[in-house]
Design goal:
The protein is an all-alpha fold. The protein has two domains: 74 residues; 31 residues, no CATH class. The chain is built from three helices and no strands. The longest helix has 61 residues. Keywords: Membrane, Transmembrane, Transmembrane helix.
């Protein structure tokens, strides 16, 4: 332990110089790291602005497509075909199954 202390006291000025040099090297390293991070931040901000612009363009394109679809909607009423005739009442002669069957047959045969 005494040797270490005597070494430090003997080369005190040299150790101070080494400490200062190491501090300067570390500060330069930190400044380079800050510069790299600033560059990354600028690049990410540019990418964000580009993405926002693309999103804006997509939104506008989507709005135009939606407007075109609305213009193409068919506006009209549902009409029944003229060849279809509604049957309002079925006349059945009696309540037996054969009577109902004959009534349906005569109804559909006359509508041809």
């Amino acid at each position: 332990m005494m040797r270490v202390i005597s070494f430090i006291l003997k080369y005190k000025n040299a150790l101070n110089i080494v400490g200062v040099i190491l501090s300067i090297v570390y500060l330069v390293y930190l400044m380079l790291q800050i510069s790299v991070k600033d560059s990354e931040i600028k690049e990410l901000k540019f990418d964000l602005a580009t993405a926002r612009f693309e999103l804006f363009r997509c939104d506008k394109s989507l709005e135009l497509q939606n407007e075109a679809i609305k213009r193409l909607e068919i506006k009209g009423e549902l009409k029944e075909p003229k060849s279809v005739e509604k049957i309002k009442k079925i006349y059945v002669k009696d309540k037996s199954c054969q009577g109902e069957l004959n009534a349906y047959k005569s109804l559909f045969n006359t509508s041809d």
